[in-house]
Amino acid sequence: MQQLRSVRLAVVLGLVFGPLGMFYSTIPGAIVMLVLSLIIVPMTMGFGLIVTLPACALWAGLSARSHNKKLLAKQVEAELTWVGRYT
Description:
Elements: H1 7-17, H2 27-43, H3 49-85
Helix pairs in contact: 1-3, 2-3
């Protein structure tokens, strides 16, 4: 069974470590942001971090929240199915 992901931890990891911190909450998103960061940051001599780090934090937080919602919906559905069998 999958575990819930901490939204706060996802945001902090995304803000501090950028795309590498996003691997906690979303692997495809982390790969996309890693590629974008490798293009944008050198072209802007590092000033691109002003945009990419908050974007990573936002994406990581939203991804963790989405993951948790899906997981909780599955648990509720399973419980309702279980209750339905025995009533």
